[in-house]
Amino acid sequence: MSPSPDPAARHQEGARHLAPARVLDVDPLLEDPKTRIVVCCGAGGVGKTTTAAALGLRAAERGRKVVVLTIDPARRLAQSMGIDSLDNTPRRVKGVDDSAGGELHAMMLDMKRTFDEIVEAHADPDRAAAILGNPFYQSLSAGFAGTQEYMAMEKLGQLRARDDWDLIVVDTPPSRSALDFLDAPKRLGSFLDGKLIRVLLAPAKVGGRAGMKFLNVGMSMMTGVLGKVLGGQFLKDVQTFVAAMDSMFGGFRTRADATYKLLQAPGTAFLVVAVPERDALREAAYFVERLAAEDMPLAGLVLNRVHGSGAERLSAERALAAAENLEDPRIVDQDDGKAGVRNSPDTQDGSDSPEPTAQPSSESAPENPQTPESADPVDDTPERSVDRLTAGLLRLHAERMHLLAREQRTRDRFTARHPEVAVTEVAALPGDVHDLAGLRDIGTRLATGRPELPEPGA
């Protein structure tokens, strides 16, 4: 039987190695002209927007004509692209290296404006004006559950239909669940085609007095209940909205289905974005399984904010032991002379024991004798200050090594469950990305899995 490896060697080998079963190679994906859509998805707060922007920049500087569709990005991200603000219109990003012939455009989804564009495109001017001014429509377009996800799909379909860009990078909405991006269009379509809408639409379809008679005879009880729950004026607004939108309802479902098929088609690639934390990777695992169930093409996992260390040879245990030794040298390090006096068997009962030091008389005792607590005053010499500082740094290093080990265990659980998923890592950065250079650096890390610390001599 071969000897088990040394624990320190095992730690050195695994501390930074969150090595996946398969490595995601980002550049061939971005450079392939057959790749037309890249969708960055995942739980909230894992860096989807920054990842999408960095991928778009890297693709543009490799010759692709790219538009990045972001969903409510932080102001710093717009500034990192050199744009004061993003809106529903793609804007070209300046400062991109276009020597390869590429371009980068960026836009932010305006949920309400996208809904307005649908109404204006599919209704005559009078009906469009009636819809846009309807209070229920204004509430629906501004914040109805699932509207943002649906409009993201609508905007994606619009961008793809225009064929002005050869790559669209989508940052999915910061939903409670990453699955909402796939589910919301169906839910909104079901609502618009649902029984409640048909009930509210029935009087308008029958028309005039006959409609009112139909309503009074067959549905007065239902509408009375709805009026009490929703409010009479609100119910009237809904009915007016439904009557005006009648001819458009089928279009919502048709476009949602078309975009859904676009996401399943060759040329689309999903990147699941996560951080090496249990909840985020659990969400990523659910999304991986859902994409497989829906026959949607998964390119791989982007693992953001992976921590590393340039001193992996020093384990957490050894660092803590060294810190304790520096903080209280009496625990381990004693001068040879003192150790010989304290530990020699001759000093226990031997006749050669040194004579005890004579105690001073009361007359010669100092006025304020030291108490046991003050007998060993704090050593503020430069050497002890350096020791305390070093001990603090060693404890910080031990915390970092524990963090690395925890990330590795979390990551290993994911890769054991989904060994087929290719992974690329992005190291944790000390600050926010605030310019194109920062996005370019993120793109490099995405493509190469560069360690957190630069290589010696780099």
Structure description:
The structure is a single chain. The protein has 458 residues and is an alpha/beta fold. It has a domain at 19-306: P-loop containing nucleotide triphosphate hydrolases (Rossmann fold, 3-Layer(aba) Sandwich). The chain is built from 20 helices and 9 strands. Residues 1-20, 204-230, 333-366, 369-376 and 453-458 have low confidence and may be disordered. GO terms for molecular function: ATP binding; ATP hydrolysis activity. Residues 35-306 form the ArsA/GET3 Anion-transporting ATPase-like domain.
List the helices and strands and how they pair.
Elements: H1 7-14, E1 22-23, H2 26-31, E2 37-41, H3 48-60, E3 65-70, H4 75-80, E4 91-92, E5 103-108, H5 111-122, H6 125-132, H7 135-143, H8 147-162, E6 167-171, H9 180-192, H10 195-206, H11 208-218, H12 220-230, H13 232-245, H14 249-264, E7 268-274, H15 278-293, E8 298-306, H16 316-327, H17 336-343, H18 346-349, H19 382-417, E9 422-427, H20 436-448
Parallel strand pairs: 1-9, 2-6, 2-7, 3-5, 3-6, 7-8, 8-9
Antiparallel strand pairs: 4-5
